[in-house]
Amino acid sequence: MLGPVILAASRSDKMRRFVSAAPGTKQVVDRFIAGETVDQVIPIVQETAAKGLELTLDVVGEDITTVEQSYAARDAYLELIERLKDLGLGTKAEMSVKLSMFGQALEGGHELALANIKPVVAAAAAIGTTVTLDAEDHTTLDSMFAIHEELRKDFPQTGCVIQAYLFRTEDDARRLAAAGSRVRIVKGAYKEPAEVAYQDKAEIDKAYVRILKILMEGDGYPMIGSHDPRLIAITQELARRAGRKLDDYEFQMLYGIRSEEQERLAAEGHRMRVYTAYGTDWYGYFMRRLAEKPANLLFFARSILTKG
Fold first, then answer.
1. DSSP code for 273
2. Which candidate, 281, 283, 275, places its Cα nearest to that of 55?
3. Domain tally for the chain?
4. Closest to 304 (Cα-Cα) out of 18, 12, 76
5. Which residues are annotated as part of the binding site for FAD?
6. What confidence tier does 94 reach under pLDDT thresholds 50, 70, 90?
7. Are residues 166 and 298 in the same domain?
8. Does residue 141 sit in the same domain as residue 235?
9. Is 172 a catalytic residue?
10. Which residues take part in binding substrate (predicted)?
């Protein structure tokens, strides 16, 4: 299985240097990363919104090591929100945030991340949008869920992410599937041990469907993060059985993947949100995209060989 190997490489400084220097890297990175700066990503936001799609914007760069970097991450999101406000795009784009980028892994990180995220959530609410807390590896989740619960006291629209491959997630889904909640379900993209996570793709898919059923039958707002045609069809059937209208849930897909399908679902009346990442520290995000799908890795390898 190449996925676990690639995920391990996502934490390697040596591999980071190799991949960054490879001649074909930029071509592939550009497929998944919308740009390095706010100025580069804003035209993509405008173009995507014009197609009837919505967005969730992620400023990449979770591997921080200093408090100052956590403040810079906070400020990067505040700048993004200000730009969306100026252009009247607040209702078209929400934010996705990794709390590690806000200092969660540093000393006193839980309190630091909470302090950093609060002004971002408040600024997002002021322009008519919201923030979703991304899930990271399993050791960070109790802190993430605690921060999510705290934020929802003043900003109940704050969302969070759950990962189907973790054994704990069915219980988390039951707890979160309450009125007013916004929950994104994904398969999971971190290297997790067998003690806490399913390792077999078929088992992960089964877990995904069980969790999706919990969310659809609950009182919250499910956000389905998947490109899998079978899971998309299952989602539509479970929504129908649960009596949900098309605006009672949404699909989410990554920027650069299955763009025609994104537009097709939007044309059918579904809410379709494009997860759009940008920033200079793209390596960890990029490697997880390669690990998720072998075709992405083959595309990358061909680009290197043809550019070499």
1. E
2. 275
3. 2
4. 18
5. 163, 187-189, 201, 226-227
6. very high
7. no
8. yes
9. no
10. 98, 288-289
Place of tokens 């999971």: 188
Q: Which residue shows structure tokens 């934010």?
A: 95
- Within the chain, what is the greatest distance between any pair of CA atoms? 54
Domain span at residue 179 reads 34-278
The answer to whether 263 touches 53, Cβ cutoff 8 Å, is: yes
The answer on 63 and 205 residing in a single domain is yes
128 shares its domain with 50: yes
Question: How big is the chain, counted in residues?
Answer: 308
Q: Is 244 a catalytic residue?
A: no
CATH of the domain at 208: 3.20.20.220
Catalytic residue from among 134, 137, 172, 205: 134
Residues paired with residue 95 on neighbouring β-strands, in sequence order: 57, 131
- 244 shares a domain with 153: yes
> CA 222, 228, 231: angle at the middle one, nearest 5?
50
- pLDDT over 90 at 26, yes or no: no
Neighbours of 13 (CB within 10 A): 9
CA atoms 51, 127, 181, 206: torsion sign: positive
Considering the domain architecture, whether residues 249 and 297 belong to the same structural domain is answered as no
Q: Which residues are annotated as a binding site?
A: 98, 163, 187-189, 201, 226-227, 288-289
Is 137 in the same domain as 107?
A: yes
Q: pTM of the predicted model, to two decimals?
A: 0.86
Distances (CA, A) of 93 to 81, 138, 143, 230: 9, 27, 25, 27
Kindly report the CA angle at 298 between 296 and 302, in degrees rounded to 5? 120
Confidence of residue 305 (pLDDT cuts 50, 70, 90): very low
Q: Which of 16, 184, 271, 273 is catalytic?
A: 184
